[in-house]
Amino acid sequence: MKLSLFGATGRVGSHILANALKDGHEVTALIRSLDKLTDPPAGHLRILAGNVLQEADAALAIRGADAVISALGTDKSTTLSEGMPLIIKAMKQEGVSRIITVGTAGILQSRVSPELLRYQSSESRQKLTRAAEEHHKAYTLLEQSGLDWTIVCPTYLPDGIYTGSYRVEANYLPVDGAQISVPDTAEYTYKQLYSMENVRARVGIAY
Q: Does domain 2-206 have CATH number 3.40.50.720?
């Protein structure tokens, strides 16, 4: 499979990249700073130097892809909300329908106030909501896109270790879910390439 990967140098994205290359996929990674990927995993990897906020760069990264994975973070910027429209546009131009992204548990539905998202309700313990608001914008764009999207929404995300054992639930955070490691989040995100079970859904993931 030919994959386009955004956020390949991030905590989750780097694990997704390793998983995809290990399984023999052809991966195109758009990377803003090449010095962040000094020792890439072995495999069929094409590295493009560029910026997702440049329409031509996003389009080049997606050209010829079968699916897109985005592990773009918020990182105190609006890269996610500004880059997602360009990713969506490029996917439609290329006829690519499948996109899997990494979000946050804040954009899952609240159990205590079902009409709200978690970050908007008393269920969330986060005092700062800027990151969740960025992910909310990306979620809204995907929801309106008509694409076959899935947003994996981890709760507290320490680096941790790989366990391969975790709980998931469509549109909600699993009850009493408190954390999930980076490697486990990356594995589940990557596995969505092989599943259509959660198309057009957010998926909460936690131990």
A: yes
Backbone angles phi, psi at 23, to 5 degrees: -90, 5
CA 134 to CA 80: how far, in whole Å? 7
pTM assigned to the model: 0.96
Give yes or no for residue 112 having a pLDDT over 80. yes
Backbone phi, psi, residue 141, to 5°: -60, -45
Q: By mean pLDDT, which of 125-129, 134-138, 177-181 is the weakest? A: 125-129
**Residue type at 155 in one-letter notation:** T
* Residue listed under structure tokens 């990306």: 138
Contact partners, residue 205, CB within 8 Å, separation at least 6: 152, 153, 154, 155, 166, 167, 168, 174, 177, 180, 184, 185, 188
Q: How far, in whole angstroms, is CA 113 from its chain's centroid?
A: 25
- The C-alpha atoms of residue 90 and residue 120 are separated, in whole angstroms, by 31
Could you give the residue ranges of the DSSP H alpha helices within the chain? 11-22, 55-62, 79-94, 130-143, 182-191
Q: Are 54 and 29 in contact (CB under 8 A)?
A: no
List the chain domain ranges.
2-206
CA 170/CA 22 separation, integer angstroms: 28
pLDDT category at 24 given cuts 50, 70, 90 is: very high
Average pLDDT over residues 84-104: 98
| Segment 42-55, tens digit of pLDDT | 889 999 999 999 99
In DSSP terms, which residues pair with 6 in a beta bridge? Answer: 30, 70
